[in-house]
Amino acid sequence: MHSATGFPPYLVFTGRQPLWNVDLLLSQAENETKASIPDFTAKVVDRLERVSKLVRENLKVAADSASSHNNRRARPKVFTPWDHVRVFYPRRIAGQSAKWQSFYKTEGTVIKKINGLVYLIGSKAWKSPKIVHVDKLKPITVFSG
Fold first, then answer.
1. Domain around 102
2. Would you tell me which of 23, 29, 33, 84 could form a disulfide with 140, CB atoms 3.0–4.6 Å apart?
């Protein structure tokens, strides 16, 4: 049983439960094999459609739960379009201690606010803009003095 889908993976892919040696000895599978091929196919397709619909609903609930859990821990920051930010990019360099590495090297510009905690960021280092969570952003402050 998968925790997010609520169904065993074999059932999701084939539309039926797997047969074990005991099932073959007890011959409970004979009921399905007596049906004609079109009837059997229609039953399997119907089962797969119902399972697929339930799996999508269960995955939506799991995704919403994970999203709300992550957003609950987020520190609220507000950026406006054209704000300059640094983006967290945790790439380790071999042979260097992690404490001497900067993980906020990538500089970008806020293009658009997608929702309260997600922004579209553009950078010269990237081919196309990326969607970034607010926890992965730091404002670039300019000191004038």
1. 84-139
2. 84
The residue type at 83: D
Backbone angles phi, psi at 91, to 5 degrees: -95, 125
Indicate whether 3 belongs to any domain.
Answer: no
Q: What is the CATH number of the domain that holds 113?
A: 2.30.30
Residue 95 CB coordination number (10 Å): 5
* Number of structural domains the chain divides into: 2
The pTM score is 0.55
Which of 103-107's residues contact partners 24+ apart within 8 Å by CB, and which partners? 104/138, 107/140
Q: How far apart are CA 120 and CA 111, in angstroms?
A: 5
Amino acid at position 97, single letter: S
Amino acid residing at 3: S
State in Å, rounded, how far the first CA of the chain is from the last one: 62
Domain-embedded: residue 108: yes
Residues 4, 62 contacting (CB under 8 angstroms):
yes
